UniProtKB/TrEMBL annotation:
Family matches, as CDD domains: ABC_NikE_OppD_transporters
UniProt cross-references to SUPFAM superfamilies, sorted A to Z: P-loop containing nucleoside triphosphate hydrolases
Alphabetically ordered keywords of this record: ATP-binding, Cell membrane, Membrane, Nucleotide-binding, Transport
Domain ABC transporter: 11-261
Listed PROSITE patterns: ABC_TRANSPORTER_1, ABC_TRANSPORTER_2
Record carries keyword Electron transport: no
Alphabetized NCBIfam families for the sequence: oligo_HPY
UniProt similarity note: Belongs to the ABC transporter superfamily.
Recorded superkingdom: Bacteria
Protein name: ABC transporter ATP-binding protein
One example GO MF annotation: ATP binding
């Protein structure tokens, strides 16, 4: 776990909202909205990894896309290196994306099958007109070597590689412009179990060597615990708990976090039999019609009348988290 200082955060997300309109009829009249992200705040410090976890559909991938402004913001702000992304035009945003890149979940779908590996990895250099043709080729070969692939693979096509090798190609492409921030959206979910550890170790090594910051979007809690310095838990578009990795995993304060962690397999059979498994009742509500009050209260064993009427806020200072060590929870009973 990195020593995270009190220096200015690399990324500051404050009250981020991403709503998708629901339209009907010939006139496409808006009748509602899907509140995919509904008031999310966090920060990421230089060299830090923040794990963003939660069930499928909680809004964590949408959050990652919105941070890169690949999705339009409905409200709130995202600042990267002190620059508010919402105020940038297309030309300014393109220049800003040199500082932040993304690794996608499916390494097969995210690589153009008609392009060689050299063209894929070198494309960011071409787009931003960096270096001569010879310099770009040399940089591309160096990037392949950096992620553990032979530079001679430069003329091959994606279909000639395994899933783990394709994800390494995706990592090489993300590193081409020397970014400060990489958003990794379920980077090992599509890989065989035997390959997952190799990719995770590679990402950890790249962070140490290059001083990268990661926003690690995942439902794999074991991977998040291994890679992350801090962890944020999302439920139905909101962060319900955020804090240091060990604090969240060893002393979870939100009932939803405790339920998630109780489902993580434990390799020790005695510990597995002894621990209490928490099974949540009911289904996740629709983000188009979230419950009043606490979004989690219909499934929470601790819910009270206050939970049904009053929406809890993350305790502590408002806005983005001011201290990496602060453990915050949005629960009336925590």
């Amino acid at each position: 776990m990195n020593d995270v200082t009190q220096a200015r955060p690399l990324v500051q997300v404050d009250d981020l909202q991403v709503h998708f309109p629901i339209r009907e009829g010939l006139l496409r009249r808006q009748v509602g909205a899907v509140r995919a992200v509904d008031g999310v705040s966090f920060d990421i410090h230089p060299g830090e990894t923040l794990g963003l976890v939660g069930e499928s559909g909680c809004g964590k991938s949408t959050t990652g896309l919105a941070v890169l402004r690949l999705l339009a913001l409905s409200g709130g702000s995202v600042q990267v290196e002190g620059v508010d992304l919402a105020g940038l035009n297309e030309r300014e945003m393109r220049a800003m994306r040199r500082r932040m890149q993304m690794v996608f979940q499916d390494p097969h779908a995210s690589l153009n099958p008609r392009m060689t590996v050299g063209s894929i990895v070198g494309e960011p250099l071409d787009v931003h007109a960096i270096g001569s043709r010879a310099e770009r080729r040399e940089r591309t070969e160096d990037l392949l070597a950096l992620v553990g692939l032979a530079p001679s693979f430069i003329n091959r096509y994606p279909h000639e590689f395994s899933g783990g090798q394709r994800q390494r190609i995706g990592l090489a492409r993300a590193l081409a412009l020397n970014p400060s921030l990489i958003i990794a959206d379920e980077p090992i979910a599509a890989l065989d179990v035997s390959i997952q550890a190799q990719v995770v170790n590679l990402m950890a090594d790249l962070r140490a060597r290059l001083g990268l910051s990661y926003l690690m979007v995942s439902h794999d809690l074991s991977m998040v615990r291994y890679l992350s310095d801090r962890v944020a838990v999302m439920y139905l578009g909101r962060i319900v708990e955020i804090g240091g990795r060990d604090a969240v995993f060893d002393m979870p304060r939100h009932p939803y976090t405790r339920a998630l962690l109780s489902a993580v397999p434990v390799p020790d059979p005695k510990r597995e039999r002894a621990r209490q498994r928490i099974t949540l009742q009911g289904d996740v509500p629709s983000p188009a019609k979230p419950p009043a009050g606490c979004h989690f209260h219909p499934r929470c064993p601790m819910a009270s009348a206050r939970c049904r009427d009053e929406s809890p806020q993350l305790n502590g200072p408002t806005g983005a988290t001011p201290s990496p060590a602060l453990h915050r929870v949005a629960c009336h009973h925590a």
